[in-house]
């Protein structure tokens, strides 16, 4: 079969590899029908995720058809169309028992495209299938469902739920990339008074309006003053960081009100300064997190009911064999205006 293989920093290729086989009784083999590319995949290609070894098949998001199941798989069977989650959960450890699947200590967590061969392939082996794949309603399209493998649950769980967005809140989302846009869309489920989007790119701020932002600000043109003006100088109730650089994180902390929440989603590769000399008395809650995907079933129900705006997120479509071209388009998002690219078989 063909798959997209990481060969070391700056080197990757769509090439022939061995087809996966059942290794454990809880595995399934899925024939991939749609995948997407994540910003984390770009970090891997740059060499910023050293635990990903050369010769690993990349990707942790997919939709496809189950073609084979292990003897201990009970939730799906061959022929079922499924969503492959970015997180694999053993279901038995203390973290899985409370739904914190991202911290699984029973052999799960983020495996696909990380420590195991991933989804950017014609076939993928998915471990711990009972909690790691989700049957799909026939009415849900592949290109919509694949966005619920990672970005929507990440935005919803790590941003909106961790940030405790409530009715009447002022919510600021810094970073209007795919995860930030999903945070805007899922924040609206809780009826905030207003959502402010902040980004460096005018095209992404225009997209933020489509996903439900009420106001927008270019990062270099006074977003802190805008938030102060909208809140009578108090600051935002919830600020969601969806970039992953020190400057944006530190700006988020400056924009939150006393007693407010800063929910960090961004993947940080450099240290950021936390000014405790200013924050110690302000009752600010700061949260971080890796997605658990415990909300994926609920999000799938909302998708089937037309309550999640997934279609505008997909700006570019490719076939699986165009993987290199899709990566190039996604990596040059500032030039191509790419949000999410979806590749189909």
Radius of gyration: 20 Å
Distance between the termini: 12 Å
What's the count of strands?
16
Oligomerization state of this entry? single chain
* Percentage of residues in helical conformation: 25-40%
Main sheet record: 7 strands, mixed
Report the average pLDDT across residues.
96
Instruction: Classify the secondary structure makeup into a structural class.
Output: alpha/beta
Q: How many alpha or pi helices? A: 12
Please, could you describe this protein's structure?
- The protein has 345 residues and is of the alpha/beta class.
- It is built from twelve helices and 16 strands.
- The strands form three sheets. Strands 3, 5, 6, 7, 8, 15 and 16 form a seven-stranded mixed β-sheet that branches. The protein has a six-stranded parallel β-sheet with strand order 11-10-9-12-13-14, with helices on both faces. Strands 2-1-4 form a three-stranded antiparallel β-sheet, with no helix packed on it.
- Helix 4 (151-161) crosses helix 5 (178-187).
- It is globular.
- The model has no long low-confidence stretch (mean pLDDT 96).
């Amino acid at each position: 079969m063909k798959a997209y293989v990481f060969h070391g920093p700056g080197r990757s290729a769509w090439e022939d590899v061995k087809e996966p086989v059942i290794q454990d009784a809880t595995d399934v083999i899925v024939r991939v029908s749609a995948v997407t590319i994540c910003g984390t995949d770009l970090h891997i290609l740059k060499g910023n995720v050293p635990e990903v070894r050369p010769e690993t098949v990349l990707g942790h998001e997919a939709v496809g058809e189950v073609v084979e199941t292990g003897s201990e798989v009970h939730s799906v069977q061959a022929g079922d169309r499924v969503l492959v989650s970015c997180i694999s959960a053993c279901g038995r450890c203390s973290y899985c028992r409370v739904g914190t699947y991202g911290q699984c200590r029973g052999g799960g967590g983020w495996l696909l495209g990380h420590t195991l061969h991933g989804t950017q392939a014609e076939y993928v082996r998915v471990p711990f299938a009972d909690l790691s794949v989700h049957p799909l309603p026939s009415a849900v399209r592949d290109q919509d469902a694949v966005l619920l493998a990672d970005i929507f649950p990440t935005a919803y769980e790590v941003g909106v739920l961790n940030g405790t967005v409530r009715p009447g809140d002022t919510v600021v989302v810094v970073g209007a990339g795919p995860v930030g846009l999903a945070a805007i869309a899922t924040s609206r489920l809780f009826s905030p008074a207003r959502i402010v989007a902040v980004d460096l790119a005018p095209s992404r701020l225009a997209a933020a309006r489509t996903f439900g932002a009420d106001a927008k600000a270019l990062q270099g043109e006074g977003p802190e003053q805008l938030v102060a003006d909208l809140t009578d100088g108090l600051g935002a109730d919830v600020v969601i960081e969806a970039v992953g650089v020190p400057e944006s994180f530190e700006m988020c902390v400056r924009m939150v009100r006393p007693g407010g929440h800063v929910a960090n989603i961004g993947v940080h590769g450099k240290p950021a300064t936390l000014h405790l000399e200013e924050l110690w008395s302000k009752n600010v809650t700061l949260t971080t997190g890796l997605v658990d995907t415990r909300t994926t079933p609920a999000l799938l129900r909302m998708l089937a009911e037309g309550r999640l705006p997934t279609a505008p997120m997909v700006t570019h479509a490719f076939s699986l064999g165009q993987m290199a071209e899709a990566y190039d388009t996604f990596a040059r998002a500032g030039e191509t205006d790419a949000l999410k690219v979806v590749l189909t078989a």
